[in-house]
Amino acid sequence: MRSERGRVFREAWISGVRKHFPGEPKPGYVAPWDETPDWEREAATAVHNQVAAFVAATGGATAKLSREQKGRFVAICWVGQIHKHFADPKPGYVADWADLPEWQRETDADIFEHIEQGL
């Protein structure tokens, strides 16, 4: 069950990248679940769980959040996972919301909505 949650997150990520990324994304951005590194699978599962818990804790009131608020939540949860898995991550991996490219912000919002609608 746990890995299924991570897979849902990963599939939403890939879908968002394919929809929003300008041009051809890096192969790692769209690698299937089975080719995703273990740390990234663990992180995807953790962030899925955080989104699901947030939706549950609000009784579904997250539907009233803006896309930006939803995307920011995913982004900050992901940054937490990066810090968990890497002692000295690249600055781009822990960038603040305002510094993320538009395609990534849109993808993060898509991920939240995908998880939210699947609950």
Structure description:
The structure is a single chain. It is built from four helices and no strands. The model has no long low-confidence stretch (mean pLDDT 96). 63% of the residues lie in helices and 0% in strands. It is globular, with a radius of gyration of 13 Å. The protein has 119 residues and is mainly α. The longest helix is centred in the middle third of the chain and has 20 residues, at 38-57. The chain has one domain (2-118). The relative contact order is 0.19. α1 (2-20) crosses α2 (38-57). The two termini are 14 Å apart.
Secondary-structure blueprint of this entry?
Elements: H1 2-20, H2 38-57, H3 67-85, H4 102-118
Helix pairs in contact: 1-2, 1-4, 2-3, 3-4
Strand content: under 5%
Provide mean pLDDT, rounded.
96
Largest sheet: none
Our Rg estimate from Cα atoms comes to: 13 Å
* Beta strand count: 0
- SSE run: HHHH
Please give a handful of descriptors for the protein shown:
single chain, 119 residues, mainly alpha, 4 helices, globular
Give a quick precis of the structure:
It contains four helices and no strands. The protein is mainly α and 119 residues long.
